[in-house]
């Protein structure tokens, strides 16, 4: 059975993505949580992670003695398993789905910087910089566009659950954590994730964790003057 090494459920957005993809693809796997935030954190030098992931980052999936060490590679592997159903069947829709996933995997640096995933957190972020607002606008435009063009058969971006939903799941939770006002179509899309049984299992795990990362919890604790 494969083993997925992940960071804390409350904070590790890159871990949540392939974890959901594996669950949604119905791939059985063991999981090991390696807490982030201690010595070496932020420098890819956490010794417990280096012992299982050559990049010094989680997630990593160990499979028959081989390691897959990136969220997208693991999610792609999950999508390739029989009957995974994580990609639209139409080739053009599939290419659009890949574009959405790629844009998330390589983009939105300001949202990642300012709205760090923190599942337990509920606040209202004020005074966000222009580049963060630009990222938020692009994400809501993308979700609205996908829902309108491809979402007809269900509540997800491409109707049925896909890799795109796994990749944007942490962003859905960030908008809730930081009280970002969303257009109706995006608010309603978010409910699909909040009601998903696999996501809820992850969330329950995050709520049960007692580790904290001070730098993440400190975001927006002071009201902006
Ligand atoms: N591009 C990588 C990014 C993985 C990543 O940044 N993981 C974070 C946790 S969410 C990590 O391992 N950080 C350890 C550190 O910063 O030292 C992926 O997509 O898997």
Explain what you see.
With 225 residues, the chain is an alpha+beta fold. The protein folds into two domains: 3-83, Glutaredoxin, CATH 3.40.30; 91-206, Up-down Bundle (Glutathione S-transferase Yfyf (Class Pi), Chain A, domain 2), CATH 1.20.1050.10. The protein has ten helices and four strands. It has helices at residues 13-24, 47-50, 71-79, 91-106, 109-114, 130-150, 163-177, 184-194, 197-208, 214-217; strands at residues 3-6, 30-33, 60-63, 66-68. The chain has a four-stranded mixed β-sheet with strand order 2-1-3-4. A hairpin with a 2-residue loop joins strand 3 (60-63) and strand 4. Helix 1 packs parallel to helix 3 (71-79), helix 1 (13-24) packs across helix 7 and helix 4 packs across helix 7 (163-177). The model has no long low-confidence stretch (mean pLDDT 96). Bound molecules: glutathione.
Could you give a short description of this structure?
This protein has 225 residues and is α+β, with helices and mostly antiparallel strands. It has helices at 13-24, 47-50, 71-79, 91-106, 109-114, 130-150, 163-177, 184-194, 197-208, 214-217, and strands spanning 3-6, 30-33, 60-63, 66-68. It contains 10 helices and 4 strands; from the N terminus they run E-H-E-H-E-E-H-H-H-H-H-H-H-H.
Task: Provide the low-confidence segments as ranges.
Answer: none
Distance between the termini: 53 Å
The main sheet orders its strands as: 2-1-3-4
> Percent helix among the residues?
40-55%
How many structural units, i.e. domains? 2
CATH class of the largest domain: Mainly Alpha
Main sheet summary: 4 strands, mixed
Structural class: alpha+beta
- Spell out the helices and strands N to C: EHEHEEHHHHHHHH
| Shape assignment | globular
Counted beta strands: 4
What small molecules does this complex bind?
glutathione
Write down the Rg.
17 Å
Number of alpha- plus pi-helical segments? 10
CATH architecture of the largest domain: Up-down Bundle
């Amino acid at each position: 059975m494969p083993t997925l090494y992940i960071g804390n459920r409350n904070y590790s957005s890159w871990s949540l993505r392939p974890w959901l993809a594996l669950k949604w693809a119905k791939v059985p796997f063991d999981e090991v949580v390696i807490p982030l935030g201690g010595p070496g954190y932020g420098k890819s030098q956490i010794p417990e992670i280096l012992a299982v992931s050559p990049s010094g980052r989680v997630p990593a999936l160990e499979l028959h003695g081989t390691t897959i060490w990136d969220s997208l590679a693991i999610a792609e592997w999950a999508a390739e398993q029989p009957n995974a159903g994580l990609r639209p069947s139409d080739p053009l829709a599939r290419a659009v789905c890949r574009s959405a996933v790629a844009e998330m995997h390589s983009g939105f640096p300001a949202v990642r910087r300012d709205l760090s995933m923190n599942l337990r957190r509920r606040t209202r972020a004020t005074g966000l910089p222009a580049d963060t607002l630009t990222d938020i606008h692009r994400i809501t435009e993308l979700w609205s566009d996908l829902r309108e063009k491809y979402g007809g058969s269900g509540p997800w971006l491409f109707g049925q659950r896909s890799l795109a939903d796994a990749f944007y799941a942490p962003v859905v939770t960030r908008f809730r954590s930081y009280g970002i006002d969303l257009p109706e179509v995006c608010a309603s899309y978010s409910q699909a994730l909040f009601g998903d049984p696999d996501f809820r299992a992850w969330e329950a795990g995050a709520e049960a964790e007692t580790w904290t990362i001070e730098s993440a919890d400190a975001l927006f604790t002071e009201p902006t003057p």
